[in-house]
Design goal:
The structure holds 2 protein chains of 2 kinds.
Chain A lengths: L1 H30 L15 H10 L10 E3 L4 E2 L10 H10 L13 H36 L4 H15 L2 H13 L18 H39 L2 H8 L4 H13 L1 H16 L2 H6 L5 H11 L2 H29 L1 H5 L1
Antiparallel strand pairs in A: 1-2
Helix pairs in contact in A: 1-13, 4-5, 4-7, 4-10, 5-7, 6-7, 7-9, 7-10, 8-9, 10-13, 12-13
Chain B lengths: L1 H23 L4 E6 L14 H10 L4 E3 L5 E3 L2 E6 L5 E6 L13 H13 L4 H6 L3 E8 L2 E6 L6 H5 L7 H4 L33 E7 L3 E6 L12 E6 L3 H9 L5 E2 L4 H8 L4 E8 L3 E7 L24 H9 L3 H8 L4 E3 L23 H10 L21 E7 L5 H13 L4 E7 L1 H8 L7 E7 L5 H4 L6 H4 L9 H10 L5 H18 L2 E7 L1 E6 L3 E2 L7 E2 L4 H4 L3 E2 L2
Parallel strand pairs in B: 1-10, 1-11, 12-21, 15-16, 15-17
Antiparallel strand pairs in B: 2-3, 4-5, 5-7, 6-7, 8-9, 9-10, 11-19, 12-19, 13-17, 13-18, 14-18, 20-22
The chains are: A mainly alpha, B alpha+beta.
């Protein structure tokens, strides 16, 4: 009963946040200085051509009633049909699952995002799994051997890995790798599509190796440090002392008593990082010429490609909200207090 | 950990399999690296140079542009011009086939030209047909173009009008809505992605992965010289450092652009050759002064005209021109890979470039004398001159687009150089979109560093400093000169090539004498290729463009 209300609450908040993001996304980018219509600055362009392009992208319509453009703020007619303004067309299309056409690529935004999202998930997905596995295991090991040479060694490694600049580590691995037969970026060797499926998968994994390694090293440090300190806190609790007094082995104490509580902060961090999975790690993508989502959005900001930005940020917001919702669910399973509160 | 070992083992096995595969089949593949791929394969809506590069390889045009800047027939074999210069009758090649095997006839040519004429939403292509009244194909090998007004440069209009196959594009020929009340036709041409890129050029589209690579295969049925390589791969790298590393490690065979900072490091590599020279489509970097006269201020189009008043004085601009050490800018910014600039028409445009103009020599003393004589004195002794009436110091805001890599260094150098004549700069980089808002037609700046790209015909850049271009925003300086405006109109309809040359040269002199711009340099195109993979790159031509057909149809693999 209580659990249902908890879930309903959380789901309601998630929905509200998504609606908020939908509205914010539209206005946020239009507040940026720079009018996409003006970026077609070319002496070859006739006024008719300029107008035809504006009509094609719907930029000739007012943003919303009474406002023609937001930055620079220009007022326009108030008596237009509200459904014929940029904002409502955007909302209407969104409900029909249409994210619009990219100003820059002249292609459907959902098509571009689909390609890019899949590439990013490939890149970050593997990195997440490896860094969680290695980080958590190292963290447990360090906490178990607390204040020994092993613990300090693991601690220093973790701190160093976490504080390495992603860009720098990527470049080092890339330059080292390219001199040792690794591909210098990209997702596949051009021309692979005519080879058998398994060869293609092998080629993909070969290209994934260095970027995934970069990701794993950086995030492993973070997970290891959090796991270690959270577990150390738990191990100082009275009930652990009781368990020790009962004569349980260290392994049993860790497995049955300490881990479940020690995992709680990590769940939060993992959920937050899952948001990154979609936003991509721009630095890794740009070092390894990986055609991911982060890079695409970064470029879209410079180009004032509103439909790309709206679609991309909605996707990111959506995945962060979903990831948090899942974290809440996991919490309610891991921590009985959440259920009863 | 077990999982990781398993994956590693799998990788090793697969890489062995892969290298074995590579050894068996040996199509000769030219791998070209660049940092930016086309924004669209539909050239009708594309903006970027890479889109034109790829279209130039896959499509035919009436004329082709040679490396020396001249035009020669591609699809055309003969042309007759009527005496009034309004009707051009072209005969085109017979036996030309599209990549899908269907013959290309004059009907396809007429269809393409009409398609472009009907579509105001084809941004750049449409500008090439603005003077066209009608295009017809009376039979399969004759195309008749009738112009509304005689123009001297039809070659430069037709050279980028790639011939589309009618049988494919007729289903994607929807026109845009003429106004807000009407609705657009279905199957909009601008929405066509054109993934197969069926054309009749020497290469055909094999595979396109946006943001990754483009694979082109040789067209064995090509009517001209058939390429001696099997495939071209254009691969995107996200930064030029990575691109250079790819060239060094042999993962690409040629790179379309080498940053000047990398030139030294790859010159020492015995397997790499660096080529530098005039680019095929030269880019211009220009230092722009806000010289707009208040009476020309385009207030109705959003003109603010807030420039520093001293910049409207020719003497101040002359002094700044004398105080600009162009060679030093070239040495620092381009590491010597460029030549001093004169005007908006770059030397890369061949005969159109006025080589008689004598540039202002670097002479700080002379610059100071000019300012002294004009009454700009440093009255308060702070090292900065003031206006003759003492009202305002000669402190100028200098803006440049943050995406421009050369501009920060140029700005720093200018700041040092002009400090010697009592002029200070307040330098600020802005987003290029925000700079457009400041620039034109608002004219809300003092000094800017920005650029233009030249077309093969000088007309595109000649229109920039005309009075009519102030309200449209192309004239960024606000420069206005009646004689220049008159010459612009005359040369754009002058059919006599020699007379047109004289006018174009005079126009360049007028702009040079009035200094609305200082052009610091004409940068060289710097490209590089590997010597151990292919031979036959055209690296001694007057212009450098290794991705041009002149190289790609000529190279052969080294066994």
């Amino acid at each position: 009963m209580n659990r249902w209300r908890y879930l309903r609450n959380k789901a309601g908040w998630s929905l509200f946040t998504i609606i908020f993001v939908v509205v914010l996304n539209f206005f946020l980018f239009r507040v940026l200085s720079g009018d996409p219509a003006r970026s077609y600055h070319d002496p070859r362009l006739s006024p008719e051509s300029n107008k035809a392009i504006l009509v094609r992208f719907g930029l000739d319509k007012p943003v919303i009633n009474c406002i023609k453009t937001i930055n620079p703020l220009r007022f326009g007619a108030c008596n237009v049909n509200p459904l014929n303004t940029q904002f409502f067309i955007y909302v209407k299309n969104l409900f029909q699952g249409d994210l619009g056409i990219s100003f820059y690529y002249n292609r459907s935004v959902s098509d571009i995002l689909k390609e890019r999202l899949w590439n990013t998930i490939l890149l970050i997905g593997g990195g997440q799994i490896f860094s969680i596995l290695i980080g958590v295991l190292l963290g447990i090991f360090a906490a178990w051997k607390a204040r020994t040479i092993i613990d300090y060694g693991a601690l220093i490694t973790g701190l160093m890995a976490w504080s390495l600049p992603t860009f720098w580590l990527g470049i080092i691995l890339l330059f080292w790798g390219s001199n040792h037969g690794f591909p210098i970026g990209g997702k596949a060797t051009p021309g692979m599509s005519s080879y058998p499926f398994f060869t293609q998968v092998g080629d993909l994994l070969w290209h994934l190796l260095l970027p995934t390694l970069t990701y794993t090293i950086i995030f492993m440090g973070e997970y290891m440090l959090i796991m270690r300190s959270s577990l150390l806190d738990v191990l100082a609790e009275d009930y652990i002392l009781t368990a020790k007094a009962k004569g349980l082995s260290t392994f049993q104490i860790l497995k049955d008593h300490a881990l479940k509580n020690g995992m709680l902060p990590l769940v939060t961090i993992i959920a937050i990082n899952l948001g990154y999975t979609v936003a991509g790690v721009i630095q890794i993508e740009s070092v390894f010429s990986w055609p991911g989502l982060g890079g695409a959005l970064f470029e879209a900001v410079g180009r004032r490609d509103f439909p790309m930005l709206q679609g991309g940020f909605l996707l990111i917001a959506f995945s962060v909200i979903i990831a948090n919702f899942i974290a809440d669910l996991t919490y309610s399973y891991l921590d009985p207090r959440v259920r009863t509160e | 950990m077990k999982v990781k070992y398993a994956i590693l083992t799998l990788l090793v096995v697969l890489s062995l399999v892969l290298s074995a595969c590579g050894a068996q089949s040996q199509p000769s593949v030219v791998r070209i690296g660049w940092t930016r791929d086309p924004d669209s394969l539909n050239i009708a809506v594309a903006w970027l140079t890479p889109a034109y590069t790829i279209s130039g390889l896959t499509y035919s045009t009436m004329y082709k542009l040679n490396l020396d800047g001249t035009f020669s027939f591609d699809l055309g074999t003969d042309v007759k011009r009527s005496d009034d210069g309004l009707v051009y009758t072209y005969t085109i090649r017979e036996g030309v086939k599209f990549h899908d095997g269907i013959p290309l006839t004059a009907k396809d040519v007429a269809f393409t030209y009409n398609l472009v004429m009907d579509h105001t939403d084809f941004p750049t292509l449409h500008s090439y047909v603005e003077n066209f009244a009608s295009v017809e194909a009376p039979d399969d090998k004759t195309v008749v173009i009738t112009l509304a007004e005689a123009i001297p440069n039809i070659e430069s209009k037709l050279v980028y009008l790639y011939i589309f196959p009618e049988h494919i594009w007729k289903d994607h020929a929807g026109k845009p809505a003429p106004d807000e009340t009407a609705t657009a036709e279905p199957n909009q041409a601008a929405a066509f992605e054109n993934k197969d890129m069926i054309g009749s050029g020497p290469f055909k589209m094999l595979e396109y992965k946006p943001g990754e690579f483009i694979r082109l295969g040789v067209n064995k049925d090509y009517y001209g010289t058939v390429a001696k390589v099997d495939e071209l791969v254009f691969q995107v790298f996200s930064s030029s450092d990575v691109l250079i590393q790819a060239l060094k490690t042999g993962q690409v065979d040629m790179v379309t652009s080498v940053p000047t900072t990398s030139v030294e490091s790859i010159k020492s590599d015995p397997n790499i050759k660096v080529v530098a020279g005039s680019p095929l489509n030269p880019d211009l970097e220009d230092i722009i002064f806000n010289v707009v006269d208040p009476k020309d201020c385009p207030i109705a189009d959003g003109g603010l005209c807030t420039g520093h008043p001293a910049l409207r004085d020719l003497q101040v601009r002359l002094a700044m021109a004398y105080a600009t050490d162009k060679q030093k800018i070239i040495d620092v910014v381009l590491l010597g890979l460029g030549q001093p600039g004169i005007g908006l028409i770059p030397s890369g445009l061949g005969d159109w470039f006025n080589s008689n103009i004598r540039d202002y020599d670097y002479d700080v003393d002379k610059a100071n004398q000019i300012l002294d004589a004009a009454g700009y004195m440093d009255t308060n002794g702070d090292g900065i001159r003031e206006m003759p009436d003492g009202s305002k110091p000669l402190t100028f805001h200098l803006n440049y687009p943050s995406s421009d890599n050369s501009a920060p260094r140029i700005a720093e150098l200018l700041s040092e150089m002009w400090k010697q004549i009592g002029i200070t700069l307040e330098i600020q980089a802005v987003d290029s979109d925000a700079l457009t808002a400041k620039c034109c037609p608002a004219l809300d700046y003092d000094v800017m560093i920005w650029g233009w790209t030249a077309d093969p015909d000088p007309n595109t850049l000649l229109i920039v400093p005309t009075t009519d271009s102030i309200p449209t925003g192309y004239n960024e300086t606000g420069f206005s000169n009646p004689r220049y405006d008159e010459l612009y109109k005359q040369q754009s309809v002058e059919l006599d090539l020699k007379k047109r040359h004289e006018m174009v040269w005079e126009m360049q002199s007028i702009v040079h004498e009035n200094v609305p711009y200082i052009i610091p340099y004409y940068a060289f195109a710097v490209q590089a290729y590997r010597l151990d993979r292919f031979t036959g790159w055209q690296d001694t031509a007057t212009k450098v463009s290794l991705e041009d057909l002149s190289s790609l149809l000529n190279i052969t693999p080294i066994k």
